[in-house]
Automatic annotation (TrEMBL):
<dbReference type="GO" id="GO:0032259">
    <property type="term" value="P:methylation"/>
</dbReference>
<keyword id="KW-0809">Transit peptide</keyword>
<feature type="compositionally biased region" description="Polar residues">
    <location>
        <begin position="323"/>
        <end position="341"/>
    </location>
</feature>
<keyword id="KW-0560">Oxidoreductase</keyword>
<dbReference type="GO" id="GO:0032981">
    <property type="term" value="P:mitochondrial respiratory chain complex I assembly"/>
</dbReference>
<dbReference type="GO" id="GO:0005739">
    <property type="term" value="C:mitochondrion"/>
</dbReference>
<keyword id="KW-0489">Methyltransferase</keyword>
<dbReference type="Pfam" id="PF08241">
    <property type="entry name" value="Methyltransf_11"/>
</dbReference>
<dbReference type="InterPro" id="IPR029063">
    <property type="entry name" value="SAM-dependent_MTases_sf"/>
</dbReference>
<dbReference type="InterPro" id="IPR013216">
    <property type="entry name" value="Methyltransf_11"/>
</dbReference>
<dbReference type="GO" id="GO:0008757">
    <property type="term" value="F:S-adenosylmethionine-dependent methyltransferase activity"/>
</dbReference>
<keyword id="KW-0808">Transferase</keyword>
<keyword id="KW-0496">Mitochondrion</keyword>
<feature type="region of interest" description="Disordered">
    <location>
        <begin position="313"/>
        <end position="341"/>
    </location>
</feature>
<dbReference type="InterPro" id="IPR050602">
    <property type="entry name" value="Malonyl-ACP_OMT"/>
</dbReference>
<dbReference type="GO" id="GO:0016491">
    <property type="term" value="F:oxidoreductase activity"/>
</dbReference>
<feature type="domain" description="Methyltransferase type 11">
    <location>
        <begin position="95"/>
        <end position="186"/>
    </location>
</feature>
Length: 341
């Protein structure tokens, strides 16, 4: 076992996307309370083969040229870090869930985050974490089964790791539990309208093989995410970023997604794609979405979320019926003197 790598978990449970530097363009060690690991029972919802996701992430992290596939995680990680700076407070202890190579911590300093735990299901990703100014400690942990005690962290962050969670409501509740009262969760995940690739593959497979199988993992819709967050957090904020990347063709999209460790890991995935189907999908993709220069776009819908753990100091809405004025009275408000309207 390598020095400094703490094996804090439980059963290995994993996830899925698909698509190079030069080929695309943009349009501390500390003591932390740890609880006993969760049991081996399955999640109530079992869409993703988490063991497969772990293998995919380990394989991608071990690539010699793996850094050239980090562009999307690096971009979204920097945007999550910007949102941490927007919160006007300092966080003594924070947790990054599904940290990968630590694309959030590398943008932070100790004035904002004093210490950070990096957790991921992939030990290879943890070994290859990026450097930074914040002291970090690595914990091998599954996002679905957090091995930390309640009321431990001032801040929990996550970037591009929650889209392949089987029990997303349960994962959000666990995040809320490990936060201290008035602690904040800041996260980003891939949303439901990502990747034109899905439609192209379905059309091509239907035409060539008489039916289609899932090749892209299902994603969460922004409307559903708001409802899920409301079950665990107060003072919610959810908004959407669209990150569009241009590739030479569909094969580069699929190659890069594999290099990101984001191949499909749904249980109902189909293992192989026929060559004729891939060629047909490339033609469909180019015809439907391609640019005049021959390149094709891949759009990643990124759902950004902020939620606070409830605390008595937080502002609360007034009770229903406590208003002292009516919207119907607005028309009776006198206009300022000299107003022409």
């Amino acid at each position: 076992m390598s020095s400094g790598l703490r094996w804090g978990v439980l059963r290995a449970v994993d996830c899925g996307l698909v698509g190079p530097a030069g080929r695309w363009s943009w349009s501390c060690s500390s003591r932390v309370p740890v609880r006993a690991a969760s049991g081996p029972g399955r999640s109530p919802v079992n869409v993703f083969d988490r063991r497969m996701k772990k293998r995919q992430k380990n394989w991608a992290a071990a690539l010699e040229d793996g850094h050239q596939y980090d562009y999307l995680r690096a971009e979204v990680g920097s945007r999550v870090a910007d949102r941490i700076y927007d919160v006007s407070r300092s966080f003594p202890l924070s947790l990054d869930i599904g940290c990968g190579k630590s694309h959030i911590a590398e943008h932070l300093n100790q004035d904002v985050v004093q210490r950070m735990l990096l957790s991921d299901v992939s030990e290879e990703s943890l070994r290859r974490r990026r450097g930074g100014h914040v002291p970090t400690h690595r914990v091998l942990a599954d996002e679905e089964f957090l091995p930390f005690k309640e009321n431990t962290f001032d801040l929990v962050v996550s970037s591009l790791s929650l889209h392949c969670i089987n029990d997303l409501p349960g994962a959000l509740r666990q995040i809320q539990q490990v936060l201290k009262p008035d602690g904040v969760f800041i996260g980003a995940m891939v949303g439901g309208h990502s990747l034109y690739l899905r439609c192209s593959l379905q059309l091509a497979e239907t035409e060539r093989e008489g039916g289609f199988s899932p090749h892209i993992s299902p994603f969460t819709a922004v409307s559903d995410l708001g409802n899920l967050l409301a079950q665990a957090f107060a003072m919610l904020t959810v908004h959407i970023d669209d990150v569009q990347i241009h590739y030479p063709g569909i094969m580069e999209v699929m190659t890069d997604l594999q290099g990101m460790g984001e191949s499909n890991c749904a249980w109902n995935r189909r293992a192989l794609l026929h060559r004729d189907t891939v060629l047909a999908a490339a033609a469909v993709y180019q015809e439907m979405y391609g640019h005049a220069d021959g390149s094709v776009p891949a759009t990643f819908q990124i759902l950004h979320m902020i939620g606070w753990k409830p605390h008595n100091s937080q502002a609360k809405p007034a009770k229903r019926g406590s208003a002292t004025a009516s919207f119907g009275d607005l028309s009776q408000i006198s206009r300022p003197a000299g107003s022409k309207n």
